[in-house]
Amino acid sequence: MSRDARWSALLELVGRHGRVDVEDAAKALDVSAATIRRDLDQLAEQQLLTRTRGGAVAHGVSYELALRHKAGRNAPEKQAIGRAVADLVAPGEVVGLTGGTTVTEVARSLAVRPDLADDGRAGQPALTVVTNALNIANELAIRPQFKLVVTGGVARPQSYELTGPLAAGVLGEITLDVAVLGVNAIDTGRGAYVHHEGEAGVNRLLARQAQRVVVAADSSKIGRRAFARVCDLSLVDFLVTDRGIDPEASARLTEAGVTVVAV
Question: What mean pLDDT value characterizes the chain?
Answer without folding.
Answer: 90
